[in-house]
Amino acid sequence: MVSAISNQGTCHFLCYDENMTQQRFIDFMERLVQDTDRKVLFIVNNLKVHHGRIVAEWLSEHKDEIELFVTSPYSPEINPDEYLNNNLKQNIHSGMIPHTKEQICSKTERFMHYLQKHSERVSCFFQHKKLKYIQDYGC
After folding, report:
1. Helical segments of 35-131, H only
2. Structural domains of the chain sorted by starting position, each given as residue range(s) with its CATH number in brackets
3. Average pLDDT over residues 102-109
4. pTM over cut 0.85
5. Cβ–Cβ under 8 Å, residues 125 and 5
6. Is the pLDDT score of 136 beyond 90?
């Protein structure tokens, strides 16, 4: 799964079966820029596909619409999406524990759809003091 959240409480996600590829990442970013009327600052970790040639070319063609902010390695606390991931993992391991890939995917999608309907919960991920830089950046 790849996801993107905003401090206004919006939540976008894409579940996929195979590995993350540059094209899949671009497809997700295309959805992000289509769903907003302002420039997207997309905070990402240091995954290899975030730095690929194809992604870099696409980003240069869309620099007025989206910008990547790549966090330093081993710094998950400065990426708000990691707070979402933590919350997602807690949800998956609560209640009925999924035992199959399909059950995990189903529970993941239900939780992510829940977050899309509860923007106040998504906004809370940005309250951590280590994420103050996002407000300082003007987002």
Report:
1. 53-61, 80-92, 101-117, 119-124
2. 2-137 (3.30.420.10)
3. 96
4. yes
5. yes
6. no
